[in-house]
Amino acid sequence: MEKHIQIPFLKDVAASLQAGDYVYLTGILYTARDAAHARMAQALAEGKALPFSIEGNLIYYMGPSPAREGRPIGSAGPTTASRMDKYTPQLLDLGLGGMVGKGRRSQAVIDAIVRNGSVYFAAVGGAGALLSKAILESEVIAYDDLGAEAIRKLRVENFPAIVVIDSAGNDLYARVSGRKS
Fold first, then answer.
1. Entry pTM
2. 167, 14 in Cβ contact below 8 A?
3. Residue closest to 84 by CA, chosen among 65, 64, 102
4. Cα-flanking dihedrals φ and ψ of residue 154, to 5°?
């Protein structure tokens, strides 16, 4: 099923999504990869605030290439999500609405998705130039020294994704491969 989703979103929206749904995301996405996740975990361990409110928001696991003239961002394809698995359950428990990436997730992440009524979306790997066309604005908001791994605030319109793990824990990757999560 194809759905248009406004982000950030509430848990009732996440609950309405099913693994395999095609979605178009419009609103704000935040980017963060390995190094940014490590810094956020350190901030939390030190009792400091995160650089953005995660409540109901989505993190896109992506590090862009430099923008061409007249564009807000360069190629913006997804990064392998499992690299963030050690950080994800804590962020979900703090209210993160979901993530966008590519690839399978650990059982600990799937359990946290279910526990928190969240969702994991996949963006098509290898289609970074196409995905960047849905990004209207890009602004570094934290950890500028990390370059491509800095946290960015993206304004997106009709950003294409697929629900891979829904709030009930249904896993599209497991379903199509015939394996358990």
1. 0.92
2. yes
3. 102
4. -110, 135
Nearest-angstrom CA–CA distance, 167 and 39: 27
- Output the pLDDT for position 23: 97
Write out the two tokens for 36. Answer: 């940014």
pLDDT at 121 over 60: yes
pLDDT at residue 77, rounded to an integer: 79
- Residue 8, classified by CB atoms within 10 Å of its CB into exposed (0-12), middle (13-18) or buried (19+), is buried
Distance CA 7, CA 97 (A): 9
Whether 76 contacts 64, CB under 8 Å = yes
